[in-house]
């Protein structure tokens, strides 16, 4: 996985829209060059050289793996995701710990652009690494691991170590059609990078390394980030065409991150002290009824969101980040509809609760039952306390959000992501399991 060579994009770009767009730009550029005067050649060659250098730099970009917190939470959000949920099959806590140790060692190598092992492979044995990311580079890969509520049953004696924040939500408004086969899991892995094959490679090899200890429960590919985790990132658009997550936490808002994202150390934490420096991940696979949405008039779409579609500005005026005037009225009615998404999700109406989002768009092709596009938002959010943050916000949205006519939560779960891996020899969840092995 040397970061020094970047092959052409066509062999690894899945999700055809991105591939088609890239190919279209390349063809268009070539055709235009053919009719320019010869004097334009040096300029075009210089631009091509700059583009090639930028591509190599992007491929070689490394996000440090070791640290006090796991990467992939406040890291500037990458363009691609693969998320995996696994169920633990062993009842031997030492086996589980060894697997988490293997995962940490592999994640350190993958995020540095290296394969599973540098050891030579004999011809008569399978390769240590599956090989599909060889020569691609790390592409800012981050790997984040979490533990689900179901891991704290009686298999490993962890019941008293489960934080109250990890209590399962039960069925909250909007969750009525959640599918068990797309929900929950003992463990989760979130892999994010700027190349789709890099994230696939990471998940594939970590699941492979779990054989005999854990099995894949469900997974999801994501593309075209649907969140901005840094103030320097442009707010992206969801598949309904609206800017999404304008008022959510940015990772460079240090105060908000400290107050609402990471779990603080507490003298009285007792058996749950292992989560100090960690964060809670909530995921939701949200199906979008795209065809129905596309028949809705623009004014109604904007009323449902509470923002203009083109600029993302609130309907009360200004620009995207202009504070919303929820008291504003026109013709005796609130300008921001009482059932609008932006009003019900706003910190002002949820006791100041905010989330750090890392969502992605997804498509699973065509729904065989309806013939419609199977597409939507794979919502991911990190927070200090999912009971008072996500659950409280989603309860309001699930009860009365006008957007509910066009969306459905069909999968997801809740996981506790422990603090980061400090260095070689440390591993995911050592603070939770270390004294048991």
From TrEMBL:
Requisite cofactors: heme b
Keyword tags: Heme, Iron, Lyase, Metal-binding, Oxidoreductase, Peroxidase, Signal
UniProt cross-references to PROSITE patterns, sorted A to Z: DYP_PEROXIDASE, TAT
Alphabetical list of InterPro entries matching this protein: Dimeric_a/b-barrel (IPR011008), Dyp_perox_C (IPR048328), Dyp_perox_N (IPR048327), Dyp_peroxidase (IPR006314), EfeB/EfeN (IPR006313), TAT_signal (IPR006311)
Chemical reaction(s) catalysed: heme b + 2 H(+) = protoporphyrin IX + Fe(2+)
Chief location category: other
Location of the region described as Disordered in the Swiss-Prot/TrEMBL record: 114-135
Domain Dyp-type peroxidase N-terminal intervals: 70-223
Example of a GO biological process term: iron import into cell
UniProt function note: Involved in the recovery of exogenous heme iron. Extracts iron from heme while preserving the protoporphyrin ring intact.
Protein name: Deferrochelatase
Gene designation: efeB
């Amino acid at each position: 996985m040397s970061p020094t060579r970047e092959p052409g994009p066509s062999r690894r770009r899945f999700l055809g829209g991105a591939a088609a767009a890239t190919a279209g730009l390349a063809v268009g550029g070539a055709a235009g060059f053919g009719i320019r005067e010869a004097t334009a050649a040096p300029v075009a060659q210089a631009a091509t050289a700059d583009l090639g250098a930028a591509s190599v730099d992007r491929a070689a970009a490394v996000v440090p793996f070791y640290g006090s917190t796991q990467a992939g939470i406040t890291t500037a959000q990458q363009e691609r995701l693969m998320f995996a949920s696994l169920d633990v099959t062993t009842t031997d806590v030492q086996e589980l710990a060894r697997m988490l140790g293997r995962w940490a060692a592999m994640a350190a190598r993958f995020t540095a652009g290296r394969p599973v092992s540098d050891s030579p492979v004999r011809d008569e044995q399978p390769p240590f690494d599956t090989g599909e990311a060889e020569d691609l580079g790390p592409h800012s890969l981050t790997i984040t691991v979490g533990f689900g509520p179901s891991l704290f049953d009686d298999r490993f004696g962890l019941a008293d170590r489960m934080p109250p924040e990890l209590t399962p939500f039960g069925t909250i408004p909007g969750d009525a059609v959640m599918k068990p086969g797309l929900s929950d899991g003992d463990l989760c892995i979130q892999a994010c990078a700027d190349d789709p094959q890099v994230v696939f490679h990471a998940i594939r090899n970590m699941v492979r390394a779990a054989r005999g200890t854990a099995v894949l429960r469900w997974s999801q590919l994501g593309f075209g980030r649907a969140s901005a985790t840094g103030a320097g990132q442009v707010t992206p658009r969801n598949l309904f065409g609206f800017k999404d997550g304008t008022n959510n936490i940015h990772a460079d808002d240090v105060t908000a991150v400290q107050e609402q994202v990471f779990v603080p150390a507490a003298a009285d934490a007792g058996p749950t002290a292992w989560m100090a420096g960690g964060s809670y991940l909530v995921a939701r696979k949200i199906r979008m009824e795209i065809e129905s949405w596309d028949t809705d008039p623009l004014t109604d779409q904007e009323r449902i969101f509470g923002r203009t579609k083109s600029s993302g500005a609130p309907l009360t005026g200004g620009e995207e980040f202009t504070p919303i005037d929820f008291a504003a009225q026109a013709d005796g009615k609130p300008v921001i509809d009482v059932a609008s998404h932006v009003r019900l999700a706003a910190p002002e109406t949820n006791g100041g609760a905010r989330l750090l989002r890392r969502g992605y768009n997804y498509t699973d092709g065509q729904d065989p039952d309806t013939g419609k596009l199977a597409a939507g938002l794979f919502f991911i959010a990190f927070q200090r306390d999912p009971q008072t943050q996500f659950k409280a916000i989603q309860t309001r949205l699930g009860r009365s959000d006008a957007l509910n006519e066009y969306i459905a939560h069909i999968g997801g779960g809740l996981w506790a992501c422990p603090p980061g891996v400090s260095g070689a020899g440390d591993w995911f969840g050592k603070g939770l399991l270390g004294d048991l092995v």
